[in-house]
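Ticket #4471: structure export looks truncated?
Reporter: QA, pipeline team
Priority: medium

Steps to reproduce: submit the single chain below to the structure queue and open the exported record.
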Amino acid sequence: MINDCLIMAGGSGLRLWPASSSRKPKQFLPAAKDGTESFFSLSLERALQVIPENDGRVIVITGKTHMPFVITACSKLSTAEKKRIVLIPEPEAKSTAPAIACAIAYAGKTGGWNRTMLVLTSDHIIKPLDVFLKNSNTAARYAEQNKLVVFGISPSSPETGYGYIETAEKLAGDVYGAAAFREKPDRKTAEQFLASKKYFWNSGMFAFRCDFLADEYRRLAADVFRSFEKLKAPDKNSYTKTKGLYVLDAWTGLKKAYKQSTVISFDYAIAEKSTQTVMIRAGFDWIDIGSWDDYAGLLSGNSPVSSGGNTVADVYTAGTDGCFVDSDIPVALAGVEDLIVVIRSGKEGSPPAALITKRGKTQLVRDIVEKIKQSDKTDIL
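Actual output as written to the record:
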């Protein structure tokens, strides 16, 4: 049984810039054309289904500036569901290893170190839910045997934007020993991975017992975990209540713990070094919206010019075909084809920015983001 779910909801998601930015990352964008659900709210729904109703908890760790988006999404939940959620605003961003260390320290000190935790990403689409729940139950069984469990995704292409898991022997059903974690490969290596049938995409979702993982941190990444282990259990004054949600924004020593912790990902700190890792081959569909081509495909209709779930403005066209528009101001397109147009006017408080790219070339947005990072205009990110 999974006792607690951790949703990591930080980051910036700049592959979908300028709709996604450090102020409003990808996970808070609409995950469907009607705009009713965000990637984060779908992750929240999954987490609430996984944990038991009596003492299960969903722990959400996010940046302070992202808390309004998290609270807005959570405020739509029932009173009973809100009681099962704890929000922890990070004092500073330090990657995934400190975030997970913070979560297991909180779980261990408030519910017991023998609790089993499932770490979920907040910016993917996963379906169907019943298959995900079945795979999660399998993960819980292996986690209870003091294993670090990771979900692996069967690769459908030689993707160079994902990390990979190399499998060892088959343990049972869709469960394998994990031989190694591989970093994002070049094209030739990715093609070799795909052909071998032994490699799977790393989903970034893990399950474990908190006491087991605490021992792994002490053994493999003591400089990350040490400061969190010293924290005392939060008392009632450590929380504030906002819209029926418990926000752990006054946990004594948390700011210092983050300051003293190392900046490092969970993969580098723990997963790549642990010798007790098993992989579950996911039976569910896992969609990572990694480019504007992907996102436009998710939100597009069948019309010659379509608009996304973020669009709140009118779009006017003449002699235009195959275009996608995501803008908060009116846009007119004349005599153009196969363009993706994204405009943010600054109405939400962020600096204005616009992106115009040809369909099929949107991976180049990563290069644009790097150029912006090297300039003196990084505020637009």
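Status: closed, not a bug. The export was complete when the record was re-opened. Leaving a note from the reviewer for reference: The first strand starts at residue 4 and ends at 8.
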